[in-house]
Amino acid sequence: xxxxxxxxxxxxxxxxxxxxxxxxxxxxxxxxxxxxxxxxxxxxxxxxxxxxxxxxxxxxxxxxxxxxxxxxxxxxxxxxxxxxxxxxxxxxxxxxxxxxxxxxxxxxx
Length: 109
Hints:
Blueprint: H1 3-6, H2 11-30, E1 35-37, H3 38-47, H4 54-66, E2 70-75, E3 78-83, H5 85-92
Helix pairs in contact: 2-5
């Protein structure tokens, strides 16, 4: 494999990343406080068949924060995640953002 090929994102991994991003936004949208934490998100991904290393969970959180879809804060050593209004719109499919799967009519998340 050449260096160029090894630097390309795996298409399947990219798809799973987009699913994780949507699953997280939808999870937060169902929470009464529109908040959760990294531990719960990690378990949620595993329950949906989207398990990944903790580093990938953090990459997902960072990407969503950069896009203005979530806000992150710390409670001691735990990362707390809060959904923004824009993040709720993306989770509902009203706004499309690169890196987040747009939910279908029968979205399982």
